[in-house]
Write a structure and sequence with these properties.
Elements: H1 3-7, H2 27-37, E1 40-43, H3 49-70, H4 73-78, E2 84-85, H5 88-91, H6 96-99, H7 102-112, E3 117-126, E4 153-159, E5 171-172, H8 185-191, E6 193-194, E7 202-206, E8 211-212, E9 222-230, H9 240-244, H10 252-258, H11 268-283
Antiparallel strand pairs: 1-7, 2-3, 3-9, 4-7, 4-9, 5-6, 5-8
Bound molecules: 2-oxoglutaric acid and fe (ii) ion.
Length: 284
């Protein structure tokens, strides 16, 4: 038996005194290693330019609809909701493809197994020369300062426009998912990273890593889709099963991701009815 068989470490690894080593055999494992160690990774070429373009048009329409729901845009401004389009998949099935993509789910499956849900699917519009709620440093799990031993939430940002230094591409503080407190000013100045990516790329990161939208100093808006996936014990931002009102509940894989199997039930009977349905699904 060779040393490699016993320890997983071989001479090729060029190590000294190392008996345990991370082995990576697929692109998804590589992204997962990046996420756990550095906090983030960029998956290239996940979505086509045409779908990204169509997504942007549809987002504009949904935003108009959401403004109408609230009366006018000023109402949204008053509650810091201007330029944030929420729950896209509730308004248009087209947005299913962004939450149900194999290059992304391969990474999520390593992080969570197959038990994870969509917490939110939003589009913050990074307007030219303007700010929005996501322009301040934040974690995507607000007010949380504990750090778990493995990811409990992973954020997936789909670049519908290019991310550049000029147009406000996401700023991140690598490794900040590993520390409870928000870092000091000097640490941020020395370590902040500006993400640059192409249309259709995906920035994927531990949702506890601090990040923010940059300043958009160009004349064009920057659009992206923000999706947060979590272990199912974390509450969704908006109850997707309620908002979707049963839609997609018959789709085995999708229904779990949308939260149909993990909603808090209103009675013992409805809890048992759901359990019965699950047993029936398994026995099929
Ligand atoms: O616009 C960005 O680059 C980041 C947005 C963000 O972090 C959020 O919406 O939670
Ligand atoms: Fe965020």
């Amino acid at each position: 038996m060779s040393l490699k068989d016993i320890t997983g470490v071989s001479k090729k690894d060029n190590t000294q005194g190392v008996s345990e080593i991370e082995k990576v055999y697929s692109a998804a494992q590589e992204h997962f290693e990046n996420i756990t160690r550095s906090g983030f990774s960029v998956i290239k070429n996940v979505f086509g330019a045409d779908d990204c373009q169509l997504a942007k048009q549809k987002i504009d329409q949904i935003y108009k609809k959401q403004i109408d729901e609230c009366g006018n845009e000023n109402h949204l401004k008053l509650i810091d909701e201007k330029d944030i389009v929420r729950a896209l998949v509730v308004y248009d099935d087209f947005f299913l493809q962004f939450l149900n993509n194999k290059k992304i789910s391969d990474v999520l499956n390593i992080a969570f197994g197959d038990k994870y849900i969509l917490n939110l699917q939003n589009c913050p519009i990074n307007r030219s020369q303007d700010k929005h709620f996501g322009s301040a440093w934040h974690r995507d799990l607000s007010y949380q300062h504990f750090i778990p031993s493995r990811p409990i939430a992973i954020s997936v940002l789909v670049c519908l426009d290019k991310f550049t230094k000029e147009n406000g591409g996401t700023r991140i503080i690598p490794f900040s998912h590993k520390f409870e407190k928000f870092p000091s000013k000097n640490h941020i100045a020395d370590n902040e990273k500006k993400i640059e990516a192409d249309i259709g790329d995906v920035l994927i990161f531990d949702s506890l890593m601090f990040h923010r939208a940059g300043e958009n100093n160009t004349n064009d808006d920057r659009k992206l889709i923000v999706q947060v996936f979590t272990l199912p014990f974390i509450k969704q931002q908006i109850s997707l099963p309620k908002a979707l009102n049963g839609k997609f509940s018959e789709d085995k894989n999708l229904s779990y991701i949308l939260g149909y199997d993990t909603e808090v039930e209103g009675s013992v009977l409805s809890w048992r009815q759901r359990r019965k349905k699950r047993y029936e699904k398994i026995s099929k």
